[in-house]
Amino acid sequence: MEALHSGVSSAGLVELQSAVSAYVEQDPGRLSDADQLTELRFLEQLSRQLHAAMIAQVASVQRRGLAGRLGPASTKDLLVSMLRISPSDTAGRVAAAGALCAQTSVSGAPLPVLLPATAAAATEGVLSAEQVGIIVGTMNELPAQLPAEEFAHAEQILVRAAGHLGPKDLRNVRTRLLATIDPDGAQPSEEQQRARRSLSMR
Length: 202
Description:
Distance between the termini: 25 Å
Shape: flat
Number of strands: 2
Order of helices and strands: HHHHHEEHHHHH
């Protein structure tokens, strides 16, 4: 158990932290107006990519079962205690981890990434944490019997919309999408159904 509390950060992460520390000491007033706006956009993209990296770490913690080995009842409890974040924030991260990262079934069989387009956009820094939460929540509301092609198409609609809309307008897209989804058609594969059940149980 003690070994779980004595790990070290990777060299790349330490270097990143050092670079960020040096950056925040610089005076933003040195920039031109155009450069200031470029910096803002770049920083936002970087923060989104770091959030995607955090989600990948949360998924790994779940796969390893670290919460059970450390004492908390669940990964959510572990994150609330260790990171000092709210239960609602934690729930969003755990839900995103279940949808955007590779998972395994109860029997240990590998499951496909449930929302690959969302995962790719999040990794590239296109999606904010709030947008990811809206997409994951929307996809979790779709009928379980929805054909795989319809499921993937619905995800694409949301990801494309999130590329140019803020959270408020993305929620409007979500409302219209849920109102027009037709659950009839070919059934999703057993593997896809397991992946969707895995998401809804997290």
